[in-house]
Amino acid sequence: MKKALLTLCFAAFAFVASFAQEAGATAEKPASLAEITFDKEVHDYGTIKQGANGVCEFKFKNTGKEPLIISNARGSCGCTVPEWPKEPIKPGESGIIKVSYDTKRVGPINKSVTISSNAKTNPEKVLRITGNVEAVQEEAFPGKTSDGAAPRAN
């Protein structure tokens, strides 16, 4: 019984000691010195027509002291598709994140793009696009009825 109790105490001590070492190892890791600064964080399309060009750009600069690495950029839905530089951005250099919005959808625009990077202050930055897509009015075609069918002879 004493051996079992002693073995159990030893195992518990080893278990606790292993977690203490892991916590100490992560605490010693230096923080990144990269920083990302955007010219704007919201792009307002205003009122645009259905099917119009839905591309906008967010310019940024690495204002830190280490290379900035953007690991991911994801839109809040499938209608918002971001493109970002895959190579590291050196300190003092700039880059562009291009966002394409599908303007086939009529109505208000209120979408976000989340940028994941190694920036010290804001490793997850949220950019927004806003505006309104207005439906294009269909023109009447000569020789057609209002339901789109050809007129009938009587």
Description:
With 154 residues, the protein is α+β, with helices and mostly antiparallel strands. It has a domain at 36-105 and 114-134: Sandwich (Immunoglobulin-like). The protein has one helix and eight strands. The protein has one helix at residues 2-27; strands at 36-38, 42-49, 55-62, 70-75, 80-83, 94-101, 107-117, 124-134. It has a four-stranded antiparallel β-sheet, with no helix packed on it. Strands 2-8-7-4 form a four-stranded mixed β-sheet, with no helix packed on it. Strand 7 (107-117) and strand 8 form a beta hairpin. The N and C termini lie far apart (106 Å).
What percentage of the residues does DSSP assign to strands (E)? 35-45%
Mean pLDDT: 83
How many whole angstroms does the radius of gyration measure?
Answer: 28 Å
Q: What order do the SSEs take from the amino end to the carboxyl end, as H and E?
A: HEEEEEEEE
| CA-based shape | elongated
Calculate the terminal CA-CA distance, rounded to whole Å.
106 Å
Helix content: 10-25%
Number of helices: 1
Summarize the structure.
The chain is an alpha+beta fold and 154 residues long. Helix content is 17%, strand content 38%. The protein has one helix and eight strands, in the order H-E-E-E-E-E-E-E-E.
SSE map:
Blueprint (H helix, E strand, L loop, with lengths): L1 H26 L8 E3 L3 E8 L5 E8 L7 E6 L4 E4 L10 E8 L5 E11 L6 E11 L20
Parallel strand pairs: 2-8
Antiparallel strand pairs: 1-3, 3-6, 4-7, 5-6, 7-8
Keywords:
154 residues, alpha+beta, Immunoglobulin-like, 4-stranded antiparallel sheet, 4-stranded mixed sheet, 1 helix, 17% helix
